[in-house]
Specification:
Strand content: over 45%
Largest sheet: 4 strands, antiparallel
Number of strands: 23
Oligomer: single chain
Amino acid sequence: AYIPISNTWRLLPPGPLSARVDAVGVWTGTDVVLLGGLYGTGQHYTDGAAFDPHSGIWRLIAPPTAPAGHPLTWKAAAYIDGQVLAWSDWTTSTRIGPGTYDLSAGTDMFSYSVGAGSWRLVPSSVMLPDVQEVLVANQLVIVRGDPSCLGPCPPASEYSAIYDPVTVAWSILPPDPLATSGQYLSSAWTGAALFSTQLWLDHSPPGNASAYDPGTGQWVELPNAPFGCLSEPATWFWTGRAVILYCSRPLPATSPISGLEFEVP
């Protein structure tokens, strides 16, 4: 753990989870919650743990009970209003004939009560492909989908939805002008708007960006950045004044830098 005030590091106590990569992590205000991850053979872990940095104590989190036939594959998580919302992608394949299989896929959403330490399945009234991003936007949660989903997919214009944890209601965002089939999007919440940019570009100029204003319910196209990101990982940060992007594979590849800053007017 890094302590900014003293500019020092300290070693944390060993955690109860086995070694893994790509675990989903979220900060609750008091604990770091880790879910899932992958191990060497490409299989998914379903367990989790929480760490309290104040006491230095870890505790295990048992996985929830998924709907019958749906394997747990943790993809994203967010903390809001005393609960960790977590999304699990699932894919099943059923043999229906010689060399013929029926492929089904979808996303399950769960809520973990930090106080009670219990899980519940949250029903969804919208169909989303594999969840790519989850952002907490004031008292709402914005979910953005992965356009490379394997199962039944909604139209590209419906890759983004808003979940209200108070009313337990979903609504579909208007079409993002950047949302086309096969295009990965990366986002940031500025406190007043959803900032969106393309990651995987096959036919459009690098650095395309847009913003959604919940007040007007409309998207606007932003000026093009000097370069874009060829693929994930790419991470956006909102500083309170500007959106900053770190990109591991800038496009074009000749770009001498791997970071961008866009100041919001």
